């Protein structure tokens, strides 16, 4: 089958459809995921085709949704849970970090927790309070959870396939501002490992590392830098926990400079761990300190101010300039 061009949201929908069709133990649960098809229509049409017993509209109770998913997993099901918006996940945080993440270790490996938690995250859509958060570092810090985020349609499709087949819990962060970006998806391709980073653009002068919504921005930064004769390499992290440090290290050993970009606040964000590890691994290769670009250490602002809060082309280019000035 030839590759088909589809929006990132459609790619997730098609991947969920394939998972439901392939395994009767796969269930989808969440607020408005059924008849409405989700607020972003990511699950559109799935309840109609697979029934209310497989695609389940739940009460507005995130702790209840995740708690029920844990119980279903204990009974052999493979639930895929939708948290409607990033900022709504916290009522379920206790269930995720003290139960879902720990059950495998607590049972000495006897109990599997094949649960996927889908979380639309990040800003850029002009939403109200609690609808534009980037809480990925909170989950990456918790042992027992896999944390991933696709940046394009092909990865959105295949990473969801791999997530639904995983016997470990996967937190699947969906970059909501990229839902409508289109890309080629080959549904018969052989995907790479779920937790391997991807070199999205080759370069020689500096490495940009990003994931999810910021990968496209970093590619635009690389385009702008190329007009000034600078060659930037862009690495799409894909997996936030575990992190593919080997791919980042190989890139930094070549370029000798690194800038990490994410929407979440810089303070104790995922970029902090990457900066520390790469400094340890590449100390004698680096010609400049690892720099980070992200949100500010402040509550996410009203929609009218979010363009000032989120990293943009100029802020990332400024970090590139500072790194190259060393």
From TrEMBL:
Enzyme class: oxidoreductase
Matching SUPFAM superfamilies: Thiamin diphosphate-binding fold (THDP-binding) (SSF52518), TK C-terminal domain-like (SSF52922)
Pfam family of the protein (one): Transket_pyr
Keyword Oxidoreductase recorded: yes
Highest taxon, organism lineage: Bacteria
Keyword vocabulary terms for this entry: Oxidoreductase, Thiamine pyrophosphate
Molecular function GO terms recorded: oxidoreductase activity
Residue intervals of the Transketolase-like pyrimidine-binding domain: 6-181
EC numbers: 1.2.4.-
Keyword flag DNA repair: no
Cofactor(s) in the UniProt record: thiamine diphosphate
SMART domains: Transket_pyr
InterPro entries tied to this protein: THDP-binding (IPR029061), Transketo_C/PFOR_II (IPR009014), Transketolase-like_Pyr-bd (IPR005475), Transketolase_C (IPR033248)
Protein name: Alpha-ketoacid dehydrogenase subunit beta
């Amino acid at each position: 089958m030839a590759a088909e061009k589809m929006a990132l949201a459609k790619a997730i929908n098609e991947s969920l459809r394939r998972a439901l069709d392939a395994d009767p133990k796969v269930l989808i649960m969440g607020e408005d995921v059924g008849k409405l098809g989700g607020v972003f229509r990511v699950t559109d049409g799935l309840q109609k085709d697979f029934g209310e017993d497989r695609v389940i509209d739940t009460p507005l109770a995130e702790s209840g949704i995740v708690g029920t998913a844990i119980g279903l997993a204990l009974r052999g099901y493979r639930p895929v849970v939708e948290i409607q918006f990033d900022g709504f996940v916290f009522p379920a945080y206790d269930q995720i970090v003290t139960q879902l993440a720990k059950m495998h270790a607590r049972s000495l490996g006897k109990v599997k927790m094949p649960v996927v938690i889908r979380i639309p995250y990040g800003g850029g859509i002009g939403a109200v309070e609690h609808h534009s958060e980037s809480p990925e570092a909170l989950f990456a810090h918790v042992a027992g959870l896999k944390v991933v985020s696709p940046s394009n349609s092909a990865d959105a499709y295949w990473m969801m396939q791999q997530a639904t087949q995983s016997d470990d819990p996967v937190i699947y962060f969906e970059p909501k501002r990229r839902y409508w970006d289109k890309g080629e998806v080959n549904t018969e391709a052989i995907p790479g490992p779920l937790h391997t980073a991807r070199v999205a653009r080759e370069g020689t002068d500096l490495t940009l590392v990003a994931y999810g919504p910021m990968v496209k921005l970093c590619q635009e930064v690389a385009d702008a830098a190329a007009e000034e004769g600078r060659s930037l390499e862009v690495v799409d992290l894909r997996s936030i926990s575990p992190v593919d440090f080997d791919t980042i290290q190989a890139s930094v050993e070549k370029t000798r400079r690194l800038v990490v970009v994410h929407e979440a606040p810089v303070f104790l964000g995922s970029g902090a761990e990457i900066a520390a590890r790469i400094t340890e691994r590449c100390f004698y290769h680096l010609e400049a300190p690892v720099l980070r670009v992200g949100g500010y250490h402040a509550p996410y602002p009203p929609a009218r101010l979010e363009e000032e809060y989120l990293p943009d082309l100029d802020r990332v280019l400024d970090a590139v300039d500072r790194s190259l000035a060393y």
